[in-house]
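Continuing the batch. This is chain 6 of the set; chains 1 through 5 are on the previous pages. Same settings as before, nothing changed between runs. Recording input and output for traceability.
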Amino acid sequence: MNTNGVRKDRSGGAPRSFWRRLALVLDMIQFPHTLFALPFALLAAMIAAREAPTPGFPGWRILLLILACMVTARSAAMAYNRLMDRRDDAANPRTAGRALPAGRLTPRWVALFTAANGLLFLLFAALLNPLASRLAPLALAWILAYSHAKRLCAGSHFILGASLAIAPVGAWVAVRGTLAGAPWLLALAVVLWVAGFDTVYALQDLDFDRRRGLRSLAVALGPAAALRAAALCHLLMVLALVAFAWRRSLGVPFGAGLVLASLLLIWEHRVLRGGDLRRIDLAFFRLNSAAGVVIFLAGGLDIVLSA
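Output for chain 6:
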C-alpha cells in the first residue's frame, strides 16, 4: 500500500486491478469537473426543444446520449492532456504527485483509456443523428489539440474555452439535427467564462511555466494584468448572456439568475484580489460550478414558466 492508500503490485509499480486503475485515472482527470460545461449543454438542449417546429421534451434517449457524449469527450481530452503533460507534471512540485508522473498509472494504460473514450464519444454521437456523427471527429480533434496549445500561444485559455463551448452547440445539434439557429451567443459566453477562470488557474504555475517555456496570459502579461484580463473575460461573458437572453426571449427568471451568477463571479475575483492564490480551489471550482448551475436553473425555470 503506498502513501495514497492505493495497493501496488509486487514490483512496487502501478496497481493491477482494473477498477483501482480506473479510480486513479478518474481522479487524475478530475472527473467531477465535467459539471462545468454540462449546465450550458442542457440549457441549449432545452432551448432547441422549445424552438423546434413541434416544441416539447427532447426525450430521455437524447438527453442521456448528450450526457454520454460530454462525459466521454471530456474524459478523452483530459486523459490525453495528462499524457502529454506527464514530463512537465513530473518536474512541477505542485503536480509531481499525480498518478502518471508518480508511476501509479502507466502511459500505455492512460493512452488506452483515452482511445476508448474517444471511440465511445464517436459512437454516441453517431447514435444521435447524421450531422452529429459527421461533426464528432472534428470536435474530438479540436478538444485534443488543446493539450498542445500551451506550448504554442498565450491564448491557450481561449482554445480551452472553445473546446467547452462545443457542448451547447453539440447539444443543439443533438436535438435539432442542424446547426441552423444554434446558440452561438451561449457558446461565446462559455468561451469567455472558461478563458477567464483558466487564466486564474494558470497563475498557480506562473514561475514554473516561465522556466519551462510554457505559455499563458500570466506569463505574457504578468499576474496583475492576467487577473484584469480574466475579469474582463467574465464581464464580456455576462454581456454575451444578456444578448443571448434577448435573442432567445428569456425573461425575468433568467435575468435574476444572471444577476446571481454575476455576483458569484464578482466574489471569485474578490477572493483573488491582490494575487492571493491560497483560496484558488474556492474561486476556480466551487464558484464557477455554482455560476454555471445557477444559469442553467434560471434558464430552465424561464423556459418552463413560458411554456
